[in-house]
Specification:
Blueprint lengths: L25 H8 L3 H23 L4 H17 L1 H14 L2 E6 L2 H14 L4 E4 L3 H5 L2 H7 L3 E4 L2 H8 L16 H15 L11 H18 L2 E4 L3 E3 L4 E6 L3 H5 L5 E7 L3 E2 L2 H14 L8 E5 L10 E7 L3 H5 L15 H5 L1 H6 L10 H12 L4 H5 L9 H5 L6 H19 L3 H12 L3 H17 L16 H4 L11 H13 L1
Parallel strand pairs: 1-10, 2-3, 2-4, 4-7, 5-8, 7-10
Antiparallel strand pairs: 5-6, 6-9
Helix pairs in contact: 3-12, 9-10, 16-19
Length: 499
């Protein structure tokens, strides 16, 4: 059978201008998603299973909270000295035989990968699951350059063959059930290589076997592999990838060339620090005591694995995040997805509603900082939360997600009202002026007492008139103010004591 290397049609749909996933802003996307009952059922089953297992695994560690604190402190130390650690990592990796590249944005990173692949005369690359490469839309850039990018992680493969987008950091195809996966494999596998076997069932081992057989030929012929990186140890230049399927190990051993795209925040200062995260990450993500595959490589070893190693250190907005004293805590994220698995909002609407490669609570605070809050999609994300705080409790590196959500909401409102004040902002501006001193408060209280006397037979106002009428006010009862203010009560009390 003749197999085409470069795809004849797009594996991933190009998003429309202005929206990463071709989705509207969160409020509308979420409303539409609520009608997808199958997706909601899939999400509820998967997230419930994962979070229950996570509770058991975390409870096994007697010093779990101390471990979380250690992770937080290590990441904070890294952020305070990121420039020094980046230079240390570059020097260590270069000495070990790795070619280090620096990329300011997605376009630079994509071009570096394309140039290396073309230099190697590669028409295809095999990929390890990577959030960074999804963030920069590397697959789309490679397709535009005539280079096929094959996802080798099972869930990523499902998403790619489904002409879909990931909806979860850990389980990209969480919105699909196994019957849907079977149909995707039957329809798509034969178009891109070895077809699915006849009579393929929706039994998970059968589906995994079909994917394994399909991917094997791609592993064996690929000359170039692309990965991300869970961690880079600054002192040794060691790259670390953790995974569950072994596809990453295949990509790290068979191809001649390996290109790793890694965000500049993924460093840890020392090899000893790595131990903390290798205990936190698996329990928080896959709810396992350790990852089935933990791969570490420090440069080139003759006769063992790829002989041409490249690391692209990616900024793409991360230094902007680092500049925000409140928002920079989001860079502590180790991509475990624990916050998503406990989020009541994510569980009901899914990851596609966030219009970002990073969905859920972490996406709601990280994406608007990386991309800015200019678009309707990005400025809606900080409001995609109930602020229940469940994400704060499970984050293995103690990111104060709720605090950052409020911080980002304030930024959105400030940007919105800076040049075009709204009725709400003008009202609150006047209230703020009035409440600056005691005399202003006393003046306002005279009106509140008058209103209390006029409406003293009622406990609540009805629908409020313009300009205070709004969707928020119409759904809430405003109590009638008391006829006696605290100041009046205090004056009476003081008068009695003096007598």
């Amino acid at each position: 059978m003749s197999i085409e290397v470069a795809p004849k049609k797009r594996l991933t749909p190009a998003p429309p201008e202005g929206a990463y996933l071709g989705m509207p802003a969160f409020p509308k996307a979420a409303k539409d998603a609520l009608h997808n009952h199958q997706m909601r059922q899939n999400l509820r089953h998967a997230t419930t299973t994962i979070r229950e297992k996570r509770l058991l695994r975390a409870a096994e560690v007697s010093n779990w909270q101390e471990l979380r604190t250690a992770g937080e402190q290590i990441k904070n130390k890294l952020a305070r000295n990121l420039d020094s650690y980046l230079l240390q990592a570059e020097e260590a990796m270069t000495k070990a035989g790795i070619t280090v590249h620096w990329a300011r944005d997605a376009a630079e990173a994509n071009q570096i990968v394309i140039d290396i692949a073309k230099q190697k005369q590669a028409q295809e690359v095999v990929k390890i699951k990577s959030m960074a490469t999804q963030e920069i839309e590397l697959n789309e850039a490679l397709e535009e350059a005539g280079i096929a990018a094959w996802e080798t992680d099972l869930a990523e493969l499902i998403v790619q063959f489904g002409h879909d987008r990931p909806s979860h950091i850990l389980v990209p195809a969480i919105h699909r059930n196994r019957s849907e996966v079977r149909e995707i494999f039957k329809e798509e596998m034969g178009l891109w290589g070895k077809p699915a076997p006849e009579g393929l069932t929706d039994n998970p081992p059968d589906l995994a076997g079909a994917a394994r057989a399909h991917l094997r030929e791609k592993f064996l012929r690929a000359k170039v592999a692309v990965s991300g990186g869970n961690f880079i140890v600054a002192e040794t230049g060691t790259l670390v990838i953790v995974e569950s399927e072994g596809n990453g190990r295949m990509c790290l051993t068979l191809p001649e060339t390996l290109i790793s795209v890694v965000g500049i925040e993924k460093l840890v200062p020392t090899f000893d620090d790595l131990e903390v995260f290798l205990r936190l990450l698996p329990r928080s993500s896959t709810a396992e005591r350790m990852n089935p595959y933990t791969s570490m490589w420090t440069g080139v070893t003759e006769g063992d694995g790829p002989q041409d190693l490249h690391v692209i250190l990616l900024d793409n907005g991360r230094t902007n995040v680092l500049a925000d004293p409140v928002g920079r805590a989001a860079l502590r994220c180790i991509r475990c997805s624990a916050c998503m698995n406990v989020c009541p909002v994510y569980e009901r609407v899914g990851g596609h509603t966030y219009g970002s490669v990073y969905p859920g609570p972490i996406g709601a605070i990280l994406t608007p900082q990386l991309r800015g809050i200019a678009s309707d999609v990005d400025k809606s994300l900080p409001f995609a939360s109930s602020l229940c705080g469940a994400c704060d409790e499970v984050c293995p590196v103690k990111i104060p997600i709720s605090d950052i959500l409020v911080h980002m909401r304030a930024k959105v409102v400030e940007k919105k009202t800076k040049h075009h004040p709204t009725m709400e902002s003008m009202i609150f501006g006047m209230v703020g002026k009035a409440l600056e001193n005691g005399d202003g408060i006393a003046f306002i209280q005279k009106f509140s007492k008058t209103a209390g006397k006029v409406f003293k037979k009622r406990s609540h106002f009805g629908v409020l008139p313009f300009p205070v009428a709004s969707s928020w006010a119409n759904a809430r009862d405003m109590p009638v103010p008391p006829t006696e203010t605290f100041r009046d009560w205090w004056d009476k009390r003081e008068s009695k004591e003096e007598k």
